[in-house]
Design goal:
By secondary structure, the protein is mainly β.
């Protein structure tokens, strides 16, 4: 499916289960009556390209986002009001063993209850390049979390809180490159890079 210069109003789920999904210069708005009444999933093996587009909500409710593919490119987008609470399956968790490219996007008003921050890259995400993005999500504890990741990069991003490099019980995290990021916290918030945090199966800190 390819969308070019399209305005798409989603009242139900947008599930990419097979093949390719491309959006260029388009506007995807989730028409929500409550959190999660419309969600988006990218299944394993799909190929995703979203460029110069807007994705968001028609209100202050949140749409869910679950990513199981590592073949994605997000460039020059404005994405807002994404993520449901941890454990819902739509908590902005990228769970593929490989990672794609997320470059020069603006992310705003992500759900502070989602997983370990605005984004969590879990289960390796090898090859991920998350760069030159603006993550304005000051109500969440982290802007990016690398959990059980290996070979991922976060560079030259603007973040309003923490980049967390952690591991779950029994997992491993290695070769994470965090370079040249800028941090601008709101009053009273921590900012910077945290290393070595450990979480249990529920996502709660251990130790």
């Amino acid at each position: 499916l390819t969308l070019t210069n399209v305005t798409l109003q989603m009242q139900n789920n947008l599930n990419v289960s097979t093949g390719n999904f491309t959006a260029r210069n388009s506007n995807i708005t989730f028409q929500l009556s409550n959190n999660g009444t419309a969600n988006m999933t990218w299944a394993s093996g799909t190929i995703i390209n979203i460029n110069n587009s807007v994705m968001g909500s028609n209100s202050s409710f949140y749409w869910g986002w679950a990513v199981a593919t590592g073949n994605y490119t997000l460039t020059n987008n404005n994405i807002s009001y994404a993520g449901l609470a941890f454990g819902t399956g739509y908590d902005n968790r990228f769970s593929a063993s490989t990672g794609g490219s997320i470059y020069n996007n603006r992310f705003t008003n992500f759900n502070p209850a989602s997983t370990n921050g605005a984004f969590t890259f879990d289960s390796t995400a090898a090859g991920l390049n998350f760069s030159t993005n603006n993550v304005d999500n000051s109500s969440s504890s982290n802007c990016i979390s690398f959990l059980n990741s290996n070979g991922a990069t976060a560079e030259y991003n603007t973040c309003y809180n923490l980049i967390d490099v952690g591991v779950s019980v029994g997992g491993t995290t290695s070769n994470i490159n965090v370079t040249g990021n800028s941090f601008f916290p709101t009053s009273g918030e921590m900012c910077g890079v945290t290393l070595g945090s450990t979480v249990d199966a529920s996502g709660a800190p251990v130790g």
